[in-house]
Amino acid sequence: MKIAILTQPLHNNYGGNLQNFALQTTLKKMGHDPVTIDRHLTIKLRTKLKLGYFKNLALYHIKGTAKPLWKNYFISKKKQAYVREDINYFIDQHINKTPRLYSDASVENTFLQNDFDVVIVGSDQVWRPIYSPNIYTYYLDFLQENKKIKKIAYAASFGTEEWEYSQEQTTRCKDLIQQFDLVTVREKSAVQLVAEKLNKKAEFVLDPTLLLSRKDYMQLFNGKGLPENKGIYTYILDSSDLKTQVVEIAKKTLGQALFSYQCDEQNVNGGKLLSVEGWVKGFSDANFVITDSFHGCVFSIIFNKPFIVIGNIERGLSRFYSLLNTFNLMDRLVLDDEKAVFELVNKEIDWKFVNSLLTKHQRDSIAILDGYI
To answer: What is the pTM of this model?
Structure first.
């Protein structure tokens, strides 16, 4: 079947790009022909995000919240192209997609011009209003009269267990979601949110990145001549004193060197962003992982690496709770107690048990998806 995938804009988000790659790869293995609708923000929304940067910067200075990253807003298009060159190469090589679309009308026209059998909304935080170019697009408002195309949400996420929709958005999305043939979500808390707020049954499934094997990801970087690393791999999205302390404690306790990918301005000033292949290889190389990222946690599990995940409250904790509970790894989460790090760095993980759970959930998730396509 010809399948359209509607997800968050493809850019320099490693987890976002890899979940799309993983979903496409899974669908291809099932014998289908997937293409991603390459939806991007309008100029108006990009301007709004820049204004939001200044607001968040003020909150950082006044309340000590996470410091916003200026690099996504204020570098030239030429500089952006250079900085993201290796990431864009991965997207072009591994993701089948439409040309970039900057409006709701262009998305609708793409569906009019292509005879899609199925549309899949997901994964990632596609149902979080603050992240989506138009929240109604991700509930397929433009296809409400189309009864021929099958409509599925796969591992859609609200990003948080708090309900962030306005009353108007709730009413409209409650109506739109009724047209979906299947609704699956990435967080267990979202099953209840969909039922209570949108009056629709939803099923829990794995994030698409967890549907592929370790070997699938190793094929991305094997033979690429990427540098070999050993020690503690740190992937931190938002810096904080706690995270710095956790890294230092782990370094001293384990007596191992650090290698890292830090999401801060240095990446822009210093050169290109790390390639997607290099980012994934970091987990394969690591002896230990410290991260505050959902997908950083995911790839630690895929590559069976002992890890500590530091709760990223600003970006939403429900994702971490759901993922870690699924694999009986809640003890790997650190919220505000750096003392727990001393115990965690030396505490072994029963990977045989974790992998058995992963195999079961992979089988169940793929069966649910396959049953509706």
So the answer is: 0.89
